[in-house]
């Protein structure tokens, strides 16, 4: 059995019943054996990603995780100058 890492996130679209009919529409993220519905539509999923991006910025601006001084997220760089050790 291969153990998945937290970053090994998968997705699925819609929940289906045993006959293959759509039971509930939505976009789901899968973290190992855990499935979470995160949006009802693509637009709502895009809004969810924007929210995650804002959370990444907040974390980068306010917290040190494993000594990280710079975090790259979704093509953007966030940096907390207070965490820099060379005074720049």
Explain this structure.
The chain is an alpha+beta fold and about 90 residues long. The protein folds into two domains: about 1-40, no CATH class; about 40-88, no CATH class. Helix content is about 25%, strand content about 35%. It contains one helix and five strands; from the N terminus they run E-E-E-H-E-E. A three-stranded antiparallel β-sheet has the order 1-2-3. Strands 4-5 form a two-stranded antiparallel sheet.
The overall strand count is 5
Main sheet summary: 3 strands, antiparallel
Which spans of ≥5 residues are poorly predicted at pLDDT below 50?
84-88
What proportion of the residues form beta strands (DSSP E)? 35-45%
Helix vs. strand class: alpha+beta
Distance between the termini: 47 Å
